[in-house]
Amino acid sequence: MAEESYAQPLPMDKLAKVYRKIRDHIQTITKEHETEVAGLKAQQDEIANAMREQMKALGIKSVRTEFGTVTMSMKTRYMSQDWDSFKTFMVENDALDLVERRISQLNMAKFLEENPDNIPPGLSSESEYAITVKKPTN
How far, in whole angstroms, is CA 17 from its chain's centroid? Predict the structure, then answer.
């Protein structure tokens, strides 16, 4: 009969140490890459501005080059400066589809805490345990 072996769990202090070491390394390399990417995006923005100015001066919306077709289009973003008035407007005009379908996680949690018997129809949720490891305090 083969002898069964049971792996002993690693000590929690060792797991926490390795976890923090990996997290710190991720933060370091993320910061390095964010700095590099920011510089590259700044260069891209300068080039895009130069292309935009040339195209506006020439009165053209697109140009084919050896390295790709450059197009210029108008993009408009909308934002509200007064959310209370905007919400009233949406209700009065039956225009709730003017906002994206995303639930505010904090506001929903607070609402459900304050109104445990008033669950919105169609609401579903997912919960999972999250692990956080903080530096020791001395």
Answer: 28
